[in-house]
Amino acid sequence: MPKTILADTRQFPRFAGVPTFCRYPLLELVPPESLPLDWAIYGVPFDGGVTYRPGARFGPRAIRDASQYVKRYSMHHDLDICEKLSLADAGDAPVQPYSCKETSEAVTGFAMNLGDPSRTKLMAVGGDHSIAYANIRATFERLDRPEGGLALLHFDSHLDTVDSVWGERWGHASPFIRAIEDGLINPNRMVSVGIKGPLNTKADLDYAREHGVTIITYDDYLHCACDETLRNFVHRQGDHPAYLSFDIDVVDPAFAPGTGTPSVGGFTSAEILTALRQLKGANIVGADIVEVLPDRDPAGITALLAGHVMFEILCLDAVSR
Q: Coil, strand or helix: which one is 125?
């Protein structure tokens, strides 16, 4: 019997009904036979931490709608995700639209109580990248504070280790410096993939380099056989718990125009799915997908890609079981 029960598309077409992430059941409607829950997926409709274009608060809603056509069987991994994992849409976390810090606290409290804390993994769907800190903290706490902090698999055009912008220390440029300071993330077990674009100054790289973060720029990935580098990084982590944070702006805006801080010259949609698959073997314990800004993408291809990224991340966990 499948662990996740989906509505029959021959009776309830994908264009009908109330949309949930990938058509997974709402948390409160998960049948007893599907428990314990493996993943609780929830939205965080917040973009108060942005430094350029707002609008990512509408990301969770857009991704739910676009993901109705994300199906359950992976040809690459040869697995049916619903046979392996019990999955649910846990709704949206509460937010405080005028405060990054208060939103982080509210989201952490919400996420702490989802599913079975000893078993259920958390995926947060943003929203801007400031929301990552809350899901990282909840994941860390629910794992009983793993010694040394979590490993971090980070896909982004930007390092997000800026101390503050306009005096705001909890915005979308700062989630990882805060997580490192608080011992949630081990920078020596952190890799940032896809970094690209002009910087404000060369010093923008200093914090990550000085703290041992592995940086794989998009040019590195394209020209230096970095598929192997990424696989080797995963291999070195062994079974250490790893969190995956995915900013949609790591993808070239030609393929993902709906984002608030677009950076040209990046991954195609095909390349990014291939890159994610190089993480096979990682002990993924939590994840987020952020920075989808649907108003800048009338065709919806950015939200559609985010839905497929969600599927690929869940496949990484399913294939390891």
A: strand
Q: Identify the CA nearest to 150 among candidates 139, 160, 161, 159.
A: 139
Mean pLDDT of 147-171: 97
Tokens linked to 110:
């919400």
φ, ψ of residue 307 in degrees (nearest 5):
-60, -40
> What sections of 2-131 are H helices per DSSP?
59-66, 81-84, 100-112
Q: Which phi and psi angles does 59 have, rounded to 5°?
A: -60, -50
Q: Are 138 and 122 in contact (CB under 8 A)?
A: yes
pLDDT range class, residue 225, cuts 50, 70, 90: low
Q: Which secondary structure element, helix H or strand E, spans residue 284, and what is its range?
A: strand 283-290
With contact defined as beta carbons under 8 Å apart, do 162 and 173 qualify?
A: yes
How far is the CA of 221 from the CAs of 33, 166, 226, in angstroms?
43, 33, 5
Q: What is the 3-state secondary structure (H, E, C) of 176-206?
A: HHHHHHCCCEEEEEEEEEEECCCCCCHHHHH
Average pLDDT taken over every residue of the chain: 96
Asked if residue 45 has a cis previous peptide bond (ω within 30° of 0), the answer is no
Q: How is residue 221 written in tokens?
A: 């990935």
Which CATH code for domain 21-319? 3.40.800.10
Domain map of the chain by residue range?
A: 21-319
The predicted pLDDT at position 56 comes to 98
**Cβ(77)–Cβ(26) under 8 Å?**
no
Closest CA to 21 of 164, 95, 122: 122
Task: Quote the CA–CA distance of 258 and 255 in Å, as a whole number.
Answer: 9
State both tokens at 120.
């259920």
Summarised one tens digit per residue, pLDDT across range 284-303 is 999 999 999 999 999 999 99
- Report which of 221, 75, 60, 228 is spatially closest to residue 155, judged by C-alpha positions: 221
Element at 285 (helix H, strand E): strand 283-290
Q: Locate 90 and state its tokens.
A: 């846990």
pLDDT per residue over 262-279, tens digit each? 999 999 999 999 999 999
Span 47-59, pLDDT tens digits: 999 999 999 999 9
